[in-house]
Amino acid sequence: MLRTHAVVPVKGLDHAKTRLASVLDAEARRQLASRFVNDTLSKLGASCIERVHVVTAHREVADRARQLGALVVHEPSAVAGGPREGHATLNAALEAGRTAAIDHGAEALLTLPIDLLMLPAFDLDAVLDRVASRDFRGIAIETDDRGDGTNFLLQSPCSALPFCYGKGSHDAHRNQANSLGVEVIAINAVPLRYDLDHPEDPEKLAKALADGEPTLLHHFHTACEIGTALPFLLDTPWAEPLRQAAQR
Prior knowledge:
Blueprint: E1 4-9, H1 26-45, E2 51-56, H2 59-67, E3 71-74, H3 86-103, E4 108-111, H4 124-131, E5 138-143, E6 150-156, H5 169-180, E7 184-186, H6 201-210, H7 214-226, H8 229-234, H9 240-246
Parallel strand pairs: 1-2, 1-4, 2-3, 5-7
Antiparallel strand pairs: 4-6, 5-6
């Protein structure tokens, strides 16, 4: 398999998940973000990924990342006391992570967000074994549950594609690949489509679970058992539909 590195951008915990301010107070958002950091970095660290690069400007996140075995890349042009300003800064952070990965010998690069609810239960190694073979040249991609964002992006070589994160990033990445003649593989990993960005996200996941898709149900229950972010979410009044789904 190709020497695969992961790049994960992480905001400061005090400014995380501001879109959820209508349903979670600042302390709950902070705790949720901390659990996402632990879940994501623990999962990546236990996988066949060779190195994990966390891009952040925040000391607490950096210290936790190092404790979990990740390398820390200082986020460019970031102010440690404030939130990121838009997707241009996110893409710049990912570029800094890409440079660090290449400098450490990466042959393939995985980028994914910090807030994938069922990542702890997902067989990441199986996907990497399938698509990150020695002769893989192209991108492997998964969208979010809206068909809009990019929740998984693997590319080889590491610089195969410029980052296009922001609104419509899934189509933007695919279009960039097509324009550059880069092969595109859709990994069709439904459990990776569910992240936590908007107040309606738990209800949408609960509806999908109610439809009874076996793979999704299995990942949900396993993530509740071995993860920390999803159980925390289930303890909030906001997540009543998910609590009901967990009892199925």
